[in-house]
Structures are given as C-alpha cells and as structure tokens.
Amino acid sequence: MAERESETEIFYPKEIMTLQLHKPCKIATIRIEIDPEAYYKVGILHDLSKNFYVHGINILGVYSTHYPDQYGYITFFVDVTQVAEKVLDEVSKSFRDIDGVVDVMVYVSPVEGVAVDPKTMPLAMGSRAIILMKHSLKLIIEEFHKRGWWLLLNAFGKEIGKAGFRDHERFVGRDIDKLFKMAEIRFSVSGFGLWETVKANVDSGEFIIRVHHSIECDIGLEIDGYTGSHFVRGVIEGWLMELMGKSDVTGFEAKCLARGDPYCEFHFKIK
C-alpha cells in the first residue's frame, strides 16, 4: 500500500440504534420477526414501511439484524404521540398478514423522547459487547494517568488489538488490503476514532497509521499533563503484532491530538 497524504476526515456522530433520542414525543418500538428466507426478499422493507404511511404514522428510525438461517428482525421507531392504541393494534395486525412475518412486538417507551428496543443487547463481530460512555472512560484514564500506569494502559490496548485482528482474519482471511479495511471499519464503529492507513508495507515492516478524533486523546485534552496516546496506540500495536506474527511491536507517536496536532500519527518499523 503506497503512502498517501492525509485526507480531510469527517466525523458523523449518531446515537446507538437501540437507544435513540428525539424531540419530546411518544415513541413506540415495532419489532418484526421475519423468517430467514423472507428477510432477503426484495421489497420486504417497502411492504413493512408502507403500513405506517397508510396509518399516518411517522417513522423516526429503522434498523435490521439477522442471524443466517435462524432469524431476522426489522425494528422501527415511530412517533405515536397522536396515535390511538387501537391504531397501533391495527398496524400490528397488518404486519402479521404479510408473508414471511413470524411475530410482531409493540413497545411504547415509558420515557418521552427516548426510543428503546428492550429485547436486544449489543454484539460486536458476533460477541456480546458493552457500551462504555466517554465520561466513564475519562474516569478510568484519569486514574491511570494519576498513578502513572502507562504500560498497563498500553498492555490493555494491545490485548484488545490482538483479539480484534483474530476476528478480522476470521472474516476476510489473510488478504492484507481487506484486513486493513476491516480494521478501519471496526476501529471507527467501536468508537476509538477514525483509522487512516497511510502506509502499510508488510515486506519492509513499515507502517504509518493516523487516527482522527481519537477518543483517548480527545479525553487527554481535558487532563493536565496528558502528552500522548497509550491505550489507542496499544490497540494498533496489538493488531500489528498478530498481523506480523511478532511477540511485541513498538512504535512512536509522531503527532498527537493531545499535544495540539490535528490528529494522532503512529510510525512503526517492524523487523
């Protein structure tokens, strides 16, 4: 992979889909179970969503999830502020009449303006996950910073990076370009920041990785004396350790958001 100039990275924040925030209104979650074959049928989303249009109900959000050959779900968040309960019953019945629909769950959020899917928990690469808020992570990083536990924070990152690589390899094999693309995607959706692969030469062992909007260094800007990345650098180091088959990989941070640079940039030379 040839070295390239940095691109302007745009960060689009969004709420986790199982908990959405909207203007104050009464929100219902409509969760529709679909048999595996019908889940992939062209037009299934159209068939489902048109029922809301027919009943004058505004869709605020929608997402889908599935497990091959076992189940599929399409979940809608809808505004029911002005919708009577009997109308919701009619909508539910109309879904059940659609070919391939197995079951329908209707849940009205007890908190105005908050859309919840109460029957789901987060998964990442098929493994159960938790959501760690930025303010919670800040408390952890502040404690490590106060105690000078940089090596421990870095070690945690390395183990996460190694486990991440093994998951990526399971999906795409040893295709180097696909592995780096998978790393960029998963790094971003996991909330670490935006990974930009500037240089990746497996033969020479030279790598340059830029991280835009690093959550660690964004937090570091709020902590006196925080001068560089340890955890996020560890994640990348652990990933490269697995890629290169090395027991340890170290590099240096040429640029850092916490030091006033526009992004973090890590250089690695692995023999």
Structure commentary:
The protein is α+β, with helices and mostly antiparallel strands and 271 residues long. It folds into 2 domains: 19-121, Alpha-Beta Plaits, CATH 3.30.70.260; 134-269, Trafficking protein particle complex subunit 3 (Muramoyl-pentapeptide Carboxypeptidase, domain 2), CATH 3.30.1380. 36% of the residues lie in helices and 26% in strands. The chain has 8 helices and 12 strands. The longest helix is centred in the middle third of the chain and has 23 residues, at 150-172. The protein starts with 18 loop residues before the first strand and ends with a strand. The mean pLDDT is 89.
Give the N-to-C terminal Cα separation.
18 Å
The best one-word shape is elongated
CATH topology of the largest domain: Muramoyl-pentapeptide Carboxypeptidase, domain 2
Poorly predicted ranges (pLDDT <50, ≥5 residues)?
none
SSE arrangement, N to C: EEHHEEHEEEEHHHEEHHEE
- Strand composition percent: 25-35%
> In the residues, how many domains can be counted?
2
Radius of gyration, whole Å = 23 Å
Beta-strand segment tally: 12
Tell me the major beta sheet: 4 strands, antiparallel
CATH architecture of the largest domain: 2-Layer Sandwich
Question: What is the topology?
Answer:
Layout: E1 19-21, E2 27-34, H1 36-39, H2 44-54, E3 58-67, E4 71-79, H3 85-96, E5 101-108, E6 114-116, E7 123-124, E8 127-128, H4 134-147, H5 150-172, H6 176-189, E9 194-201, E10 206-212, H7 215-220, H8 231-244, E11 251-255, E12 264-269
